[in-house]
Amino acid sequence: MLKLIILDVDGVMTDGRKYYDREGTVRYKTFCDKDWTAIKRFRALGLEVIFLTGDPFNVAIGENRKIDVIVNRFSGEHRDKSDYLTEICKDYDVQPHEIVFIGDDIFDVHLMQLVGIAFCPLDAPNIVRQNAKVLDGNGGENLIAKMYDYLEAKGLISTGNFADHLDKVYELDLREKF
Fold it and tell me: Which CATH number characterizes residue 15's domain?
């Protein structure tokens, strides 16, 4: 049974592009609303969703969407994402086989090898694609929605009664800051 969805952000929920100002500060990225809806759909089913990202820029985005964020690259340190697995399992009361992870870069491979199901976009490097289920789309192209559809089609998640499910999604939507 799946209990936790871990999302990399840049290159998965975005196309990986960052827009910088003259001082070198990231000013904006683009996200797909269908992915935010897919996250709410997961949460409406009782699955926890968290970000595990290298960019502190994503903390505010996670906070606005009521999503816990772990940043693995900060203050001159870059930890492997798999280093957080024990802590994540303890904090969310899950086992590695109950976790779904989606990432897009070489920094995601070790974690992909340790969780129950790993996904990546079509435009991920070869080594990443060799360690994950490749979704039909590049980073930023509705990958979380496509992952949801894949898990539902395989019977790994079920919405049950769609009207009830949609009501829960609406409830979650009202709690977010856009």
Answer: 3.40.50.1000
At 121 the pLDDT is: 98
Count of Cβ atoms closer than 10 Å to residue 42 Cβ: 24
Beta bridge partners of 19: 28
* Distance separating alpha carbons of residues 49 and 18, to the nearest angstrom: 23
Helix (H, G, I), strand (E, B) or coil at 99: strand
User: Token digits for 69?
Assistant: 């964020």
Beta bridge partners of 50: 6, 68
Task: Give the domain range for residue 21.
Answer: 4-175
Q: Which residue has the tokens 């989606």?
A: 102
Domain total for the chain?
A: 1
Report the greatest alpha carbon distance in the chain. 51
Q: Global pTM?
A: 0.94
- Predicted confidence at residue 126, as pLDDT, reads 98
CA distance 67 to 51: 7
User: What is each CA distance from 106 to 79, 110, 124, in whole angstroms?
Assistant: 13, 8, 9
* 114 closest CA partner among 100, 124, 130: 100
Predicted confidence at residue 130, as pLDDT, reads 98
In sequence order, which ranges of the chain are alpha helices (DSSP H)?
Answer: 33-44, 58-64, 85-92, 109-112, 126-129, 143-153, 162-175
